[in-house]
């Protein structure tokens, strides 16, 4: 298990934003601190899952001192987010989607710092949790 530092930012009239210094461009948000932590755990797991699927190297966690020394971190609260490195075998699947829907998925996933696969896995897990809840 690895622990990564997430930074929680809160601007007036906004949700709690969460960023990961070890994963530039990866962000998420929550309506309150508990939601932000849950979203951070989910986002990290899905992002790393997508990196593994794409064959990308997973960075080593940075030291807290190094993260907090960066000027962008000064107004943030640091939390540790655990990543359980489960050995899930990625399986390639072939699906058919309308072209316009696929373009929307790709644009949204890229804006969230996710791969297409990572976004689709995240959306499917959320939908399944919503239905079973």
Can you walk me through this structure?
It comes from Rhizobium deserti. The chain is an alpha+beta fold. The chain has one domain (2-132): 2-Layer Sandwich (Double Stranded RNA Binding Domain). It contains four helices and four strands. A four-stranded antiparallel beta sheet has the order 3-2-1-4. α1 (33-54) crosses α4 (116-132) and α3 (99-111) crosses α4 (116-132). The chain is globular. The mean pLDDT is 88.
Question: What's the helix and strand layout?
Answer:
Blueprint: E1 2-10, E2 16-19, E3 27-30, H1 33-54, H2 64-69, E4 77-83, H3 99-111, H4 116-132
Antiparallel strand pairs: 1-2, 1-4, 2-3
Helix pairs in contact: 1-4, 3-4
Summarize the entry for a quick read.
Helix content is 44%, strand content 18%.
Index terms:
44% helix, 4 helices, Double Stranded RNA Binding Domain, four-stranded antiparallel sheet, alpha+beta, single chain, 133 residues
The CATH architecture would be 2-Layer Sandwich
Number of strands: 4
- Count of folded domains: 1
Return the string of H and E elements: EEEHHEHH
Helix content: 40-55%
Task: Specify Rg, calculated over alpha carbons.
Answer: 16 Å
Structural class: alpha+beta
Could you give the order of strands across the largest sheet?
A: 3-2-1-4
CATH topology: Double Stranded RNA Binding Domain
Average of per-residue pLDDT values: 88
